[in-house]
Write a structure and sequence with these properties.
Helix content is 36%, strand content 24%. It has 256 residues and is of the alpha/beta class. It has 2 domains: 169 residues, Rossmann fold (3-Layer(aba) Sandwich); 77 residues, no CATH class. A 6-stranded mixed β-sheet has the order 6-7-8-3-9-10, sandwiched between helices. Strands 2-1-4-5 form a 4-stranded antiparallel β-sheet, covered by helices on one side. β7, α8 and β8 form a beta-alpha-beta unit.
Length: 256
């Protein structure tokens, strides 16, 4: 098996003459945490939407484990093991924390959309759901209504529901957005923990998070790859500094 789990070749998306993603060649290594970063409007979210087939590319190829998945539909992509956090982590606010994870686990029973299944038939998933909640530090909140969770713990629940889908490749879109320092720290540690034995591709603005946990970073600017490498490499790249800072100051988080 190749060490490359996800590859794009010349991935391009145009919207009525505007090129949002331009000739992107991306290689994500198996077992890595790989960050996609860039200034606002750089094309990061469009790139994620292309990878998960929410939008179709204008040109180029997407390969997963060496298989061309460019023409597949979002549901087919998910069944292959590419799970994007928000796809199934628009958590159900009035279900309990445990019930939310159980919805993700129902896929293994072949009853993903049968929300009327009896409590008895779903109870067989409780041990797995509790184990996942343990993994993300939410076991003590299992019976709590999701609507009452603090924001940072809701994000942890989103990661648990993503894990319930048994992803081979997790795509996390801005996992620490809108969080205070303590929640950022907790979720960053959580991502590092759950990455063991998995591959993660994430869009993230917080450079301290990127510096702390990412093996490789791809920097987008105006829809194209500007630079790639580990944090030390990209944080000292003059073009990256210019794109982010308009100058030569080190990127925030270079030492954190």
């Amino acid at each position: 098996m190749s060490d490359t789990i996800l590859e794009t070749r010349g991935l391009t998306r145009e919207f009525k003459g505007f090129v949002a993603v331009s000739q992107v060649d991306l290689r994500v290594q198996r077992g890595h945490i790989h960050a996609l970063i860039g200034p606002n409007g750089a094309g990061k979210t469009t790139c994620f939407n292309l990878l998960t087939k929410f939008i179709a590319p204008s040109a180029g190829q997407i390969l997963f484990n060496g298989r061309d998945i460019t023409m597949l539909r979002p549901a087919q992509i998910a069944r292959m093991g590419i799970i994007r956090s928000f796809q199934i982590s628009a958590v159900f606010p009035h279900l309990s924390v445990l019930e939310n994870v159980r919805v993700g686990l129902q896929r293994k029973l072949g009853t993903s959309f049968q929300f009327w299944k009896s409590e008895r038939s779903l109870a067989q998933l409780n041990d797995q759901a509790l184990a996942l909640l343990d993994e993300v530090g939410l076991r003590d909140f299992a019976d709590q209504a999701t609507v009452d969770l603090p924001y940072g713990r809701k994000r942890a629940l989103e990661i648990a529901t993503t894990l319930a889908m048994d992803p081979e490749l997790m795509l996390l879109d801005e996992p620490t957005q809108g969080m205070g320092h303590e929640d950022v720290k907790r979720v960053t540690e959580l991502i590092k923990k759950v990455s063991k034995g998995r591959t993660i591709l994430m869009v993230e603005h917080n450079m301290s998070v990127v510096a702390g946990i990412c093996d490789r970073i791809s920097v987008l600017q105006r829809g194209a790859i500007l630079a790639e490498g580990d944090y030390e490499t990209v944080s000292r790249n003059p073009q990256v500094l210019e794109a982010y800072m308009g100058g030569t100051a080190p990127l925030e988080g270079a030492h954190g």
